[in-house]
Amino acid sequence: MMNIVLLSGGSGKRLWPLSNDIRSKQFIKIFKKEDGQYESMVQRVFGQIRAVDERATVTVATSRSQASAINNQLGAGVNICVEPCRRDTFPAIALAVAYLHDVKGIPGEEAVVVCPVDPYVSTDYFNALKQLESLAAGGAANLVLMGMEPTYPSEKYGYMIPDSKEKVSTVSTFKEKPDLKTAEEYIAQGALWNGGVFAFRLNYVLKKAEEMLGFADYAGLFENYQTLPKISFDYAVVEQEKEIQVLRFSGEWKDLGTWNTLTEAMDENVVGKAMYNDQCSNLHIINELNVPVLCMGIENAIVAASAEGILVSNKEQSSYIKPFVDQIDQQIMFAEKSWGNFQVIDVEDASMTIKVTLNPGHGMNYHYHQNRDEVWTVLKGRGYAVLDGKRRPVKEGDVIQMPIGCKHTVVAETELKIMEVQLGQEISVHDKVKCEL
Fold first, then answer.
1. CA-CA 20 to 30 A from 176: which of 19, 367, 397, 436?
2. For the packed helices 41-52 and 64-74, what is the interaxial angle rounded to 10 degrees?
3. pTM of the prediction?
């Protein structure tokens, strides 16, 4: 049985407009399953882990802003270790390891594999993770890394140069992300990509955490997290370790970090309502809007449309959108929550209209607002609302009013769609006071 920590971070700006500060690339549903439904990168990886080891302990180390989306997409079958604030990968991994040890009761001598949450990989990758964990558990090295055999001289990855060409080798040296010419030189020396995949015994990182962060227990790390240094696991641990091995991996492994690389992994050219004529070539369209998109004579391009905006880009140029997206200042228009999702429909100076979808059996937190009134119109489904402690059934066509200070929640018995109108001069996501029901 494997212990796996999936690192989930990032703001997702390179895949705008389908991603934003809350909805990072790993949550975009673009991979078509056999049943015709779509799944995200994190759902795909989680399903692949379960296929290889259905009893694996899977923990996602993430920020508060992503916890709801993970709950929504993966359900109760995954542990979530939430960072109190953003630091770097060493504090995040130390907190996750302490969580496994102190909260989940996993013994310190057991091994754990740490890897990104969003690689595009096949089953052989997860079989290699099992081998990686076995090597770490065997104790021949304190740290075992997976080295990806490079397919081109990339400037995006760090490199490691092994001492031999054997499948398992000690490591001669690590190299930072290079320019193109230097990357070619590294590959000529037999270098492997450092994909951020490694395994170790829990006690090893707990000891490092005590030495460098001052805490090795979950409670201490969590309570003092904001004071911990921002330092990467590579710099703090990997590059300083003498007893280290690398497992060579030559299977499929892609980092789908840009529209250009993401579309290469898509099974189809169109997701959502879209059409294109026969003069188009190498075109991908992803449309989350409920309006049709039509493309004529477009070549080597990506068209992506969502509530956040619309991107029309040459595929090669799509890799350079981040500085432009940084200039866009608008509120989050779509987000997944643990109970469902919401999409902002309209924003005025003193009102906001939001379409809310609650999944069956789920409900919002019991809360009230200090600066706005709210009106709910039930569009579909049934459930019940609680207003100032009084429960009432709700169904399609019902209208519910909640003035400032009214404590309220709603729970879905079937899928429940609600149009929520917020009214007030100071409408803010921060105007929410949670209560006990």
1. 19
2. 60
3. 0.86
